[in-house]
Amino acid sequence: MFCLRNYWSPPFALVRGGTTVGHPLKFNSVVVCGARGPRPRYPRVWKTRKKIGTISKSQKLVECIKGLSNVKEEVYGALDSFVAWELEFPLIVVKKALKALEDEKEWKRIIQVIKWMFNKGQGKTMGSYYTLLNALIEDGRIEEAEELFGMIFSRYMEGLPRTFFMKMISLYYSVGAYDKMFEVFADMEELGVRPDGSIVRMLGDVFQKLEMMDKYEKLKKKYPPPKLEYRYIKGKRIRMKVYPNNTTEEATKGDPITDELEEAESIHLDNELEEAASSGLDRNVLDDAASGDLEYL
Fold first, then answer.
1. Which sections of the protein are PPR repeats (predicted)?
2. Which of 55, 86, 181, 254 lies at 20 to 30 Å from 197 by C-alpha?
């Protein structure tokens, strides 16, 4: 007995009575057994076809905990019952549920879900820590946010991303705790983390408010404003020139004739970029279409 797939059988086959029975020339969905003829292939019974994706599971998780109270035992019990029959911890489902809760600005639920996940020993990543830190700040629990940042900073000192420093500096800037703001900035400089433009602007404003002009001049000299920055225009990453704050008004002011010409050139450039992107031209054509102020990457 042997089995072949896509076998070209002869146009006829002998049967015991001496009669001939014709068979189709090609079988696509059947299996031809030796001297037995075609046998149809039936679907396997033990394979289930109903599959529940992670998106629907995350929606169920959000609906499961959304109507509960803020009691810790009640929320943790609902989450435990949700993952009771899972063979492995549904980390992707929980992360998508956290993203949905973040879009709805359910900060208390985010804090509860992340702490429950950490108690299970799962999902201790930089993304989860940053989501928890952001939720604590948005919920007004500043002391817990400071404790969390201190723990993360002491544990992951050299590998801490810049976004954590930016979050804490913006928090202290909004609250008015300038001493703590300077401490975080000093830690950034010791670790060699270069601040971005927003941090430099906030520090400059604080130095001007406190009339510390010598430190303000040192800050501006050490971290000058960038001449170029990246922006996303119609889904494309474009590098553009940045004008300083003192010359912004002068750059925006101008003759109406030159303004009309610049507007017409920008419209023409956008049309060329759209045509090049739609026609699938190569990178060199897009570079030629870009002007001096814009550089396509």
1. 161-195
2. 254
- Cα separations in angstroms, 113 against 97, 106, 124, 211: 9, 11, 13, 45
E-state strands within the chain: 3-4, 12-14, 20-22, 30-33, 37-40, 228-233, 236-241, 294-296
Q: What does the alpha-carbon distance between residue 38 and residue 31 come to, in Å, rounded to a whole number?
A: 6
CA torsion angle 263 264 267 269 (round to 10):
-110
Stretches where the chain sits below pLDDT 70 are: 1-52, 243-297
Output the pLDDT for position 230. 78
Backbone angles phi, psi at 24, to 5 degrees: -60, 155
Half-sphere exposure of 88 (CA within 13 A, CB side): 5
Q: Tell me, what DSSP letter sits at residue 175?
A: H
3-state secondary structure of 70: coil
